[in-house]
């Protein structure tokens, strides 16, 4: 049994490290490379129509993504926490009603940070396992590679509001999430604070990879895999343009 466990662990680690490294292109300003410029034009127009536009600041915000191990050999794997240190985002607060407000957030999969030790340390026992730099590279390459999220082909994630209801500080937003070349809608609760000087939008959502045509990472016939559902948490801070 011990020999089987050791062999299994070696196979899993080899699988994690066996994909060529993907390269991100984050710049020092915290803005994703080749960010879509249409958002600037869209929100410039909204600002000229009245209301207030807030530009989200990556340095004062957090976007965290949590992926969880699964399978009979799950104890040989790890839960993972990803973050998006570079993104572009805007919030428009209409002068008349929340229903006329909107927001957009975009970031690149290949610019995500994987398993920052400080992030893991803050999450308790389920994330307490130590992940080596080599393992982190392997996880990143596999999750973003051709058999999973295909970041080279579908680099962008775009989250934008379709409808906003409620009243400060609690809102419900119907969102469209564009990922892996597909778009899915969902309803998400939001908490908005900091007004009128600043804007802080906090919320969370659950995304199922299979809803976007992504097959969750799996090795050894499913003995070790990643759960379909991932959690996305965000706290986005912005200032008026």
Task: Give an overview in words.
By secondary structure, the protein is of the alpha+beta class. The chain has one domain (2-23, 32-240): Lipocalin (Beta Barrel), CATH 2.40.128.110. It is 18% helix and 39% strand. The protein has helices at 2-17, 38-48, 117-121, 133-144, and strands at 52-56, 62-67, 69-70, 80-83, 88-93, 102-108, 113-114, 156-167, 170-179, 182-193, 199-208, 218-219, 224-226, 229-240. The chain has an eight-stranded antiparallel barrel. A hairpin with a 2-residue loop joins β9 (170-179) and β10 (182-193). α1 (2-17) packs across α4. The longest helix is centred in the first third of the chain and has 16 residues, at 2-17. The chain is elongated and about 55 Å long. The termini are far apart. Mean pLDDT is 85; it is low at 1-29.
H/I helix tally: 4
Distance from N terminus to C terminus (CA atoms, Å) equals: 62 Å
Q: Output the radius of gyration.
A: 19 Å
Taking strands numbered 1, 2, ... along the chain, how are they ordered across the largest sheet? 1-5-6-8-9-10-11-14
Helical coverage, percent range: 10-25%
């Amino acid at each position: 049994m011990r020999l089987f466990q050791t062999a299994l662990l070696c196979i899993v680690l080899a699988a994690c490290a066996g994909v060529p490294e993907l390269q991100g292109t984050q710049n020092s300003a915290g803005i994703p490379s080749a960010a879509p410029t249409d958002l600037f034009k869209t929100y410039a127009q909204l600002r000229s129509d009245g209301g207030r536009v807030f530009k989200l600041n990556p340095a004062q915000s957090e976007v965290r993504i949590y992926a969880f191990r699964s399978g009979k050999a799950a104890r040989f794997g790890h839960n993972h926490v990803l973050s998006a240190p570079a993104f572009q985002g805007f919030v428009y607060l209409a002068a008349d009603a929340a229903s006329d407000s909107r927001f957009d957030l975009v970031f690149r999969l290949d610019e995500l940070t994987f398993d920052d030790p400080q992030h893991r340390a803050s999450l308790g026992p389920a994330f307490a396992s130590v992940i080596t730099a080599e393992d982190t590279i392997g996880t990143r390459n596999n999750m973003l590679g051709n058999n999973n999220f295909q970041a080279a082909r579908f680099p962008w994630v775009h989250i934008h509001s379709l409808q906003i209801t409620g009243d400060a500080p609690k809102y419900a937003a119907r969102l469209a999430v564009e990922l892996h070349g597909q778009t899915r809608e969902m309803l998400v609760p939001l908490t908005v604070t900091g007004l009128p000087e600043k804007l802080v939008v906090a919320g969370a959502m659950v995304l199922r990879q299979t809803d976007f045509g992504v097959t969750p990472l799996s090795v050894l016939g499913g003995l070790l895999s990643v759960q379909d559902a991932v959690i996305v948490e965000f706290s986005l801070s912005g200032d008026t343009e």
